[in-house]
Amino acid sequence: MMNETLEVWDPRSRIDNQLEYFTEIAIKESQKWIQAVTRKSFKFSDARRSLENGILLCELLNAIQPGAVKRINRLPTPLAGVDNLNVFLKACEEKFNLKDSQLFDPGDLLDLSHRADSLHENELKHIYDRRLRNVPMVACLVIDLAINLLMSM
Questions:
Q1: Tens-digit pLDDT profile for residues 13-51
Q2: Are 58 and 72 in contact (CB under 8 A)?
């Protein structure tokens, strides 16, 4: 008799696959919308890398409501990126009336590649996807608010 290993079916893996699929769609749609509104392209094919400095997100809010973000830190440093993300999130709360529970955490866009040594590639991708999933949800809320703002004019 051969030693056959039975693959155990885990319903979480199916849910993870579905979430990954819908996250990819949400990211691509958010990317299209952000590029259309700001008239600027993502610099990288990886949406996380393109948004991690917060500049495009701040420019998005300013395109929707001029002056929503007073200053954008354009220094190419991680600290400047965190600063921009915090300014973006604060403007979402103050100018667009989003609640803290509707927003992502600035850490959701942090680069985890330095942790790649200690994490398996699939595990790292799962963490990236889970964290990045929050970002297009905020973009969708901003899209909805922008449409409502335009409709009320």
A1: 676 677 777 878 888 999 999 999 999 999 999 888 999
A2: yes
